[in-house]
Every structure is written in C-alpha cells, then in structure tokens.
C-alpha cells in the first residue's frame, strides 16, 4: 500500500470518529443556559476527546511528509490504532454521563493509553522502513515528551483507580497542553 492511501484512510476514519463524538452529546432537558450548564461534564469530555484526537491527527499529518514508504506492519499498527480510537465516542459518552465513576474514567484512560502505545508502534514501524527520514519529536522514541505523555496518562489512571475518579480526564486535559506545546515547537517539551 502506498503512503497516500494509508494517510487518506486514517484521515477519513479519524474524521468519522470525531463526528460521532458530537452525535453522542446528550441534549439538554430544557434549552436554556441552566440546561446547558447541567451538561458541562458532557461538553468537557467532548472537547477533550475532540482536541486529543485532533492533536493526534495534526501530529501525524505534520510528520507524514518524511514518510517515503509504509510496511505491512505500519498498516497493521494503523488499523489497531484506528480500532482503539473508534472507542473514543463510547468512552467519552460513558465519562460524560458518569463523570465520577471509576470504571468509566479508567476505561477512558485505558483507551487513551492504548492509542498512545499503538502510535508508538506506528512510529517504530515507520522508522524501521524509513531509516534516513527525519521525523518530528513524537516519532522520535525515546523522547522525554513521549515518555512524559505516557507517564501523565499512567498517573491519571492510577489516581483514578485509587483516590479520585475524574483524575483520568484531568490528566488528558494536562496532556493535551503538554503534547500540544511540544508538537508546536517540534522539539519535545523538556528541551
């Protein structure tokens, strides 16, 4: 498969996933400010999931120019990533309607972590078949920013499971700013 077909497929599936996110938003019982305010957890979860997926897409898009070839491994890892990412509308809906529920928050965190790990696998497969390519920081493992990304999610998951259920979604909130900062500067957060 050539790189353009894989990129187009990934773009399409992520766009569909991001569209489904908004379709899952609960409607207010009364359409007024109080009714919308009552759904603030829904809007918060939707916003975080949308921008997390959007940041992931942007990072892939910004690094894809360095890709010359893709392997069967790259395609397989991409399919796994898209499969896992397709759970975001479901887990976002669970978190939105059960904000203080440990299971809902943990499942959301597990999906976020496994998507991150699958992106690392994509990165590894691309570097293996494109050894001379210069990728941005996200595709440069091990990198302090990538490690920090995973550590923030793991800490959020641990706190969710032991102390404070909504810690996972707040960890994603923090993670968006750190990963977003690093991707804009293409150097990694700690450099």
TrEMBL record:
One Pfam short name = TMEM175
Q: Which UniProt keywords apply?
A: Ion channel, Ion transport, Membrane, Potassium, Potassium channel, Potassium transport, Transmembrane, Transmembrane helix, Transport
Q: Which organism is it from?
A: Pediococcus ethanolidurans
Matching InterPro entries: TMEM175-like (IPR010617)
Membrane topology type: Multi-pass membrane protein
Sequence intervals crossing the membrane: 6-25, 37-58, 78-99, 106-126, 146-179
- GO MF, one annotated term: potassium channel activity
Cell compartments where the protein resides = Membrane
| Family listed | Belongs to the TMEM175 family.
Q: Which domain of life is it from?
A: Bacteria
Q: What GO cellular-component annotations does this UniProt entry give? A: membrane
Q: What is this protein called?
A: Uncharacterized membrane protein
* Catalytic reaction equation(s): K(+)(in) = K(+)(out)
């Amino acid at each position: 498969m050539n790189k353009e077909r894989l990129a187009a497929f990934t773009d399409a599936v992520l766009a569909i996933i991001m569209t489904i996110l908004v379709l899952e938003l609960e409607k207010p019982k009364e359409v007024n400010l109080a009714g919308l305010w009552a759904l603030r957890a829904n809007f918060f979860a939707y916003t975080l999931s949308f921008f997390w997926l959007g940041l992931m897409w942007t990072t892939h898009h910004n690094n894809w120019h360095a890709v010359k070839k893709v392997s069967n491994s790259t395609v397989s890892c991409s399919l796994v990533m898209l499969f896992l990412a397709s759970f975001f509308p479901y887990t976002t809906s669970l978190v939105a309607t059960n904000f203080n529920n440990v299971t809902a928050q943990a499942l959301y965190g597990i999906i976020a972590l496994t998507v991150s790990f699958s992106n690392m696998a994509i990165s590894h497969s691309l570097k293996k078949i494109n050894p001379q390519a210069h990728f941005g920081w996200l595709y440069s493992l091990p990198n302090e920013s990538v490690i920090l990304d995973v550590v923030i999610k793991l800490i959020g998951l641990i706190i969710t499971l032991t102390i404070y259920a909504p810690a996972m979604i707040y960890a994603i909130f923090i993670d968006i700013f750190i990963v977003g900062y690093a991707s804009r500067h293409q150097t990694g957060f700690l450099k």
